[in-house]
């Protein structure tokens, strides 16, 4: 078999295994299927395929053979694809039978916890005094935006109760099993193993970056806590009151301008005007919250985009949010998730290399690199010019400047808190996985969570208690949360570059093609820092985010005023086609599609949401 034929065969083998796993993943996570055994089997087959250490030498031999290919173009393409596979197998290879057995046991154990958690009912007491079910997004929205303290407290207590349920239902054993697996792989603990796998650095190297950021933002964060307590009393620092105390009223004021019924149209128009092209991808969007559905937005690609022997294979990408359109705050939150996951989809639909290993979300793809794409897109929703153009009430009136200013005045003092609420997770997970098996008790881990929240957030309990974060249970997402903070650093660096180059971001048609060229096309064949350097001319730099955190509210508002003034001088151009086949579903129910047009799809979706939820 020639090296080129070997590459093509490897591509097809992976596609089959990957598609099966991802289809099971979607159906079980969406609550469409309860075939958890089938899902576990597919996940195990995928893991075992990539765990084959023998593939590393096999691919190296094929790389040597590829050097003799006479056609220079075929030679370069074959070497490129084989190097991609070499990196992927090196990221996943498990050499010892003991480690392989432990990994398979982990997959089974995680599936069992997932199934139990999916059936576990969370409840809180609503405004009417009724005990009702509430998913994580609904509880979080109540904590942020409900104007009754008793409701916020009940929702927050539900998250604390979830922590204790997890501690009694397998989480501690999961930590022990993960650490045992990591030790067979040559690492001190699972956190150290995961950081090397996902970000290609040691945990010590990671914490040089994190501790620098913690120090840079510590004082501004503490100042905001002190000022809030001075203004509203110490009760404002309680977990169920904290976020509402500085954002609750303004989010209620914003709510009429961002109904979830308009979210799909806003995404289509905004991404279209940015000239983001999905390269013929097939997109399936499941956007509404329901019982049994995974309680966090995500994006995954059953078919990765790539060139198969010169023929373009368009991606198939599914993504989800958990909107409850009739709840205050859910419109903006749901729209944010739609933009975030839509950014992921744009990235994974636009990797233009010759093997599917370059265009999937797993290692060697850096989580920080992947999240940079999505978080750049959702960052636009905080910009005053975006809000003036897209946040419109039922009569078509734009959100008043006064509400935008209130958003800035309320949020900017807590910008450092927002980033530190990401930072707190790796501090907790690192310490958690450094604990010995004997130290891992429900009491000690709960205390560690509260101590870490106090150290990083300055709060006795976080509005989002640490162990209620779903990422901590998921194999690929656990010990990877720092990727969000690293991504935010890159997002602010990217925003600064575009602002310096063009003067604005909202509806800038230059942005989509530049993101595609420099961030997306090469996939994981280049490092996160290298992709940033390709666009901006400088490597990864955390200072842009730190500077944003340390601005005063007045400084931030002056910048937003400039955006509003500049918007009035720009013409509104028609959105370009997203170049995608789009289907909107609610579980197994079809809600809308763009079979006729994007506009028709948005009309269908809006009519359904208004009819079902009222707005």
UniProtKB/TrEMBL annotation:
GO MF annotations in UniProt: metal ion binding; metalloendopeptidase activity
Pfam families noted in UniProt: Peptidase_M3
GO terms for biological process, alphabetical: peptide metabolic process; proteolysis
Keywords: Hydrolase, Metal-binding, Metalloprotease, Protease, Zinc
InterPro entries: Pept_M3A_M3B, Pept_M3A_M3B_dom
UniProt remark on cofactor binding: Binds 1 zinc ion.
Essential cofactor(s): Zn(2+)
Domain Peptidase M3A/M3B catalytic as annotated: residue spans: 284-549
Gene3D superfamilies: 1.10.1370.30
UniProt record similarity statement: Belongs to the peptidase M3 family.
Protein name: Oligoendopeptidase F
Species name: Vibrio vulnificus (strain CMCP6)
